[in-house]
Amino acid sequence: MTDNPPTTPRPPLRRWPLARAVLTAVNGTTLVGLGVAVLAGARVRRGRHGILVAEGYRRRVPPATCFTVGSVVITRRTADWLLHDSRSELLAHESRHAGQYAVLGPLFWPAYWAACGYSWLVTGSYGARNAFERHAGLERGGYADAPLRPWVHRLRRRRGTSPEAPEATTAD
To answer: In what order do the strands lie in the sheet with 43-46?
Structure first.
């Protein structure tokens, strides 16, 4: 009988970046992100925690300073700008999107655009009520929350719910 040395389990936070990178590689979204970066003339560098940073994106669409495709954060700025400690919240926001790609794969795109449409419909902002942006942290990504449009308030009043209260439920 041999004694096995005690092992210390690795913290889950150390495993998730690797799992996220593997999942986005396997589901093809990181490959698409690399393709977008190369076609836009961006230079790809290794970031933190399994994230790749494509710096110097030169296309007009989307107009955002940075966006994520798979495990690739694509930015108009330099990788050093994005990786600077003062922008750790923005990088965390984009990393959450990479996690969303890991879970949904290519289904992320239609789901994200549907969430943008819903958000725009009820607020006039593509991000304010977008479930993916809210999950990633609105403020971290530079988004502002927006109030619901007046017609949504009227609709909720007619249904007997207030905009701030959860949907009314009936007891069984």
So the answer is: 43-46, 52-55, 72-75, 66-69
